[in-house]
From TrEMBL, chain A:
Keyword Protein biosynthesis: yes
Protein name: Cytochrome c oxidase assembly factor PET112 homolog
Key words of the record: ATP-binding, Ligase, Nucleotide-binding, Protein biosynthesis
Organism encoding this protein: Cuculus canorus
NCBIfam families: gatB (TIGR00133), PRK05477.1-2 (NF004012), PRK05477.1-4 (NF004014)
Record-linked Pfam families: GatB_N (PF02934), GatB_Yqey (PF02637)
Record-linked Gene3D superfamilies: 1.10.10.410
GO CC term, one of those recorded: mitochondrion
Automatic annotation (TrEMBL), chain B:
Superkingdom of the organism of origin: Eukaryota
InterPro entries, sorted: Amidase, Amidase_dom, AS_sf, GatA
Residue ranges annotated for the Amidase domain, each copy included: 25-480
Entry protein name: Amidase domain-containing protein
Coiled coil feature spans: none
A molecular function (GO) term: ATP binding
Species per Swiss-Prot/TrEMBL record: Cuculus canorus (Common cuckoo)
């Protein structure tokens, strides 16, 4: 079976006001407090296009390697629903603002960070359209409550061709899109706040045969659920077909509690949206350096080239720069970018320490990050600041403590009691023993106490040396430098 | 002239306002007004008076009583579109054109009656009842009508105003206001203007803001101007035209208000007579008047030539498809959820919507919605909507070709006949009537061109007949200049209404065509 997955992603545009009206865009405001006359569809009101939304769409289109249509059109898509006051949505069905792009994303093979493969998904188009309001169904009192704050907020719908084959790919593609949008600033793309919503189109077929009937899983609002929903749906379809059933071309929702997709009641039958050109909006004309009329400044129009020149670094570029600048591995750069604020944290530590970035990265990704994950904290919420970590790493670099000791110190720092690394080291007596004579004595004690091991080493079994090192470490409560210990032991044993 | 009178203190804005309000009361049987905003009007008049006393009037329109068709939003005043759907709906904002008039100091007397949601050509299909043409009660009409007994026949013999801006036309015609706003989508300003003996101007699409005008067909609607003389129309146009950032379909160019010159020499003009406007059903009377008008120009030295607009006969069908499609779309917002009538049915959202819309809309509106949705179905879209748009382009091109060939202006009849009695009008349904009556006015809306109906003469029945001039895009000045010349030549008689005479109209007495400019 070959699964085929395509995606329709709705990203809320990060702007002060809505796509066609001046009311504010804000999350979690009191119900119906951000609604203009136009949003409420009061008769006689007309749409006025928001420039910032157009720019956001152009930026996104350029970042996704799309062709920006210099002339695009607006249409009305009609259906009746409580959260759609005008009875139609203004969208771009005939000629959207951007088409034919691509998005590259990376996957780990077999869950090993060390092996990444790059994949590409084609972007069919990006279109500007209005978001709907929110309706809440109160089944107990048998009523529907409508909040129009979201009605009319600008959306970019990004359509990804069915080039993906499983939940993991879908999630990775969306993750990369999210990072791009956040880098551009065109959308904050926070899924938990509904700023990024994904509809997945899933079908399966046998190789060589035409595509199967597809279902649409709507309104998935987290990456985890996306992967789960897609994989579940693929499985469901395969099972259904293998049992001789058929797949209905239907719309489904993902039930996160049950972990499965279920048919949606509301969208029965095929809808004819009766598309019609939006008569109140003239065609959207964009310019580039060549077509810009002589007497117009870039403030009067939207100039594609002007926007292109000012695009910030995309995630892929940022990653490449990190690898080049710090000598870290590509996989590392992925993780750095994947966690909000982690890159900045890493760079701050590097700035404040003599330790090589290649070593710092280990502490960031293995130690700090795992602590954060364990306690479900974001980088911003980390009780260990970059300053503290750098301080600690400096102690390690200066060989004042061992790596093992450093880990202990980090655990203490994590408690966030306000102590400095040095204070903790002194408190717990974790300093490396600097006195060589003292170390020599301890080594001697260990050697003297372990005749069998000494003989094994002298006989050629070098591995047993590690046991002795370990024993010295135990004696010194981890306060000995293993490299130095090894040297001393070897010297003694060869005497 | 009344503006001058106001300036010179011969009459005060409050006196003027009160007289108009009194006249509205005594002509209530015309049913021209849905809402009379007496309190606010008097307040506005008072403010205007203060300004005049200070010697600082805002302009020509300061203190001038006007009325506005009830499909324009007026803040704090009920806006119904003559429909159950919006009965009791108080607009929270002013339409841009209304705001502009108020900013000039005009006094808003009230909202005028219309066909429900501006759908119709008689002003007979609104929920507040039909509008009666003031000329039904004029001496001129009564003299000519064959009456067996007096008052009975008067009651049943009254004629329609035409539509859909019948209330506005009647209001201006009966002297209850000096200017009125209507709307024109297929002729809705020019048609009633012709039937009521007033000037009806349809400006170029995109010249005047539609923000606040409750739309019928967004791509054809324009606010229309009804006045008693052409000069007045130019004044009103000057105060309401111009780019509005709230309406993305208005042109960006700067608009300069203009005064109409007194044209004396028409020899440089080329008047086109489109032969297709000799439409089936055109009364011989109007045909004769049209001919006479053409001769008038010829005799004055203008070049009068026959031209052809070959796609005219398709315009009605094309209009029907495009209009109903947009109507279906525009009416989708009326669901009772946010405003307007809401049905008591609350079993489900769908049933509430369905009941609300059935209760709120009349047959005409519902019929157009059904047609429109049919044309917009995926399987029909190509064959109906797209085709109609192509035909629309052809119709518009007809005009372009003719104007490019050297013709300055077109002269056509406005209506097929004079106003018919109401009892006769209602024998046919709204759709049939619209199809018949819109034929001469409709193409100008398709092409977005400016057009004006000028009262020309009285028919044999003693009722007004108007003729129409169609001009080039955004050439309102030329259009109105020629119309003004024509108006001067034909000397259309003033309506002789008892009610008007009864009130002391010192202002109206010494004028032939009671204008305010």
């Amino acid at each position: 079976w070959v699964p085929v997955v395509g995606l329709e992603i709705h990203a809320q545009i990060s702007s002060n006001s809505k796509l066609f009206s001046g009311s504010q865009v804000q999350f979690a405001a009191p119900p119906n407090s951000l609604v203009s006359f136009f949003d409420a569809s009061l008769p006689g009101t007309l749409p006025v296009l928001n420039r910032r939304c157009v720019e956001a769409a152009v930026m996104t289109g350029l970042a996704l390697n799309c062709r920006i249509n210099k002339k695009s059109l607006f249409d009305r898509k009609h259906y009746f629903y409580a959260d759609l006051p005008a009875g139609y949505q203004i969208t771009q069905q005939r000629v959207p603002i951007a088409v034919n792009g691509s998005l590259s994303y990376s996957l780990c093979i077999d869950n090993k960070m060390s092996q990444m493969v790059t994949k590409t998904v084609r972007i069919k188009q990006i279109q500007l359209e209005q978001d709907s309001g929110k309706s809440l169904h109160d089944d107990i009192r048998s009523q529907t409550l409508v909040d129009l704050n979201r009605a009319g907020v600008g959306l970019m719908e990004v359509v990804m061709e069915p080039d993906m084959c499983c939940g993991e790919e879908a999630a990775a593609a969306v993750r990369e899109l999210q990072l791009i949008l956040q880098a551009l600033g065109s959308s904050q793309a926070v899924m938990a706040e509904g700023q990024l919503r994904v509809d997945a189109n899933v079908s399966v077929h046998h190789p060589g045969e035409p595509y199967g009937v597809r279902t649409e899983v709507k309104n998935i609002n987290s990456l985890r659920f996306l992967a789960k929903a897609v994989d579940y749906e693929i499985q469901r379809q395969i099972e259904e077909l293998e049992n001789g059933g058929t797949i209905l071309n239907e719309t489904r929702a993902f039930d996160s509690k049950l972990g499965c997709t279920v048919p949606m009641r509301d969208k029965e039958g095929k809808q004819d949206y009766r598309f019609m050109p939006e008569p109140n909006l003239p065609p959207l004309i964009l310019y580039d350096a060549k077509s810009l009329p002589a007497n117009m400044s870039h403030q009067q129009v939207v100039n594609i080239d002007w926007i292109h020149e000012r695009l910030p670094d995309l995630p892929s570029v940022k990653r490449a720069k990190l690898v080049e600048q710090y000598g870290i591995l590509p996989e590392h750069s992925f993780t750095l970018l994947n966690e909000d604020g982690l890159t900045e944290f890493f760079e701050n530590v590097v700035k404040q320490t003599q330790m090589k970035p290649r070593k710092v990265i280990g502490w960031i990704l293995n130690d700090l990050l795992s602590y954060l994950k364990q306690h479900s904290l974001t980088v911003k919420e980390s009780p260990v600041s970059s300053f503290l970590l750098a301080d600690l790493l400096n102690l390690l670099e200066k060989k004042e403590i061992s790596a093992a000791a450093a880990k202990q110190v980090l655990a203490e720092l994590w408690k966030g009691e306000g102590k400095t690394p040095l204070e903790i080291v002194k408190e717990k007596k974790l300093e490396l023993i600097q006195d060589q004579k003292e170390l020599e004595q301890i080594c001697q004690v260990v050697i003297d106490g372990h005749e069998n091991e000494v003989m094994a080493i002298k006989a050629g079994n070098r591995k047993v040396l590690n046991k002795l090192i370990g024993l010295v470490q135990r004696e010194t409560h981890g306060r000995s430098n293993p490299v130095l210990v090894k040297q001393l032991l070897e010297k003694k044993l060869s005497e | 002239q009344v503006s001058v009178a106001l300036k010179e203190g011969q009459v005060t804005p409050t006196q003027l306002c009160q007289r108009c309000l009194a006249l509205i009361r005594s002509t209530k049987f015309l049913n021209a007004y849905i809402t009379v905003a007496e309190e606010t009007a008097l307040k506005q008049a008072e403010e205007s008076e203060k300004r005049y006393r200070r010697g600082q009037p805002l302009g020509v329109l300061d203190g001038i009583p006007v009325s506005v068709k009830d499909n324009f939003n007026t803040a704090g005043i009920e806006t119904t579109c003559a429909s159950n759907m919006l009965k009791g709906y108080i607009s929270p904002y002013n339409a841009t054109v209304v705001q502009k008039l108020l900013d000039q100091g005009a006094v808003l007397l009230g909202k005028t009656n219309l066909d429900e949601f501006a759908m119709g050509s008689g002003s007979t299909d609104g929920v507040f009842g039909p509008v009666r043409n003031p000329w039904s009660y004029s001496r001129q009409y009564k003299e000519k009508s064959v009456s067996k007994s007096h008052s009975e026949d008067e009651e049943s013999n009254w004629v329609i105003t035409g539509g859909s801006s019948g209330g506005s036309a009647a209001a201006v015609s009966s002297f209850t206001c000096f200017a009125a706003l209507g709307s024109d989508t297929g002729g809705s300003t020019r048609n009633p203007a012709a039937h009521c003996g007033v000037v009806g101007l349809k400006p170029t699409y995109g010249l005047i803001s539609r923000h606040g005008l409750i739309p019928l067909v967004n791509s054809m609607d324009v606010p229309g101007i009804l006045t008693r003389c052409v000069d007045d129309a130019a004044v009103v146009l000057g105060s309401i035209a111009g780019h509005d950032p709230k309406d993305s379909t208005t042109i960006q160019d700067n608009f300069m208000p203009f005064e109409l010159p007194d044209l004396t020499d028409v020899s440089k003009l080329s008047i086109g007579i489109p032969k297709e406007y000799h439409a089936p059903g055109l009364s011989s009377e109007i045909l004769a008047l049209w001919s006479k008008a053409a001769d008038l120009f010829k005799d004055a030295g203008a070049k009068v030539i026959e031209v052809s607009l070959p796609h005219t006969r398709y315009s009605i069908v094309c209009y029907h498809v495009l209009c109903t499609a947009e109507v279906a779309s525009n009416m989708a917002r009326f669901d009772g959820l946010e405003y307007g009538h809401r049905s008591d049915m609350n079993e489900s959202t769908e049933s509430m919507y369905a009941a609300t819309r059935r209760e709120g809309f009349n047959d005409v509106v519902r019929g157009r919605i059904l047609s429109g949705n049919y044309f917009l179905l995926k399987q029909n879209y190509e064959n109906y909507f797209i085709k109609a748009q192509k035909v629309r382009r052809l119709i518009a091109n007809d005009f372009v070709k003719v104007f490019r060939s050297g013709v300055d202006i077109l002269l056509t009849p406005t209506t097929l006949s004079d106003a018919v009695p109401y009892m006769e009008f209602i024998k046919e349904d709204n759709r049939t009537r619209s199809t018949q009556d819109d034929i001469l006015t409709q193409a100008a809306n398709m092409a977005g061109l400016p057009a004006v109906s000028v009262p020309t003469a009285l028919s044999e029945k003693g009722l007004p007949v108007g003729l129409q001039f169609i001009g080039r895009s955004f050439q309102e000045k030329q259009l109105l200049t020629i119309a003004k010349w024509f108006e001067k030549q034909v000397k259309f008689p003033m309506i002789q209404l008892e009610e008007v005479k009864r009130l002391d109209h010192g202002v109206f007495q010494h004028q032939k065509s009671a204008s305010f400019s």
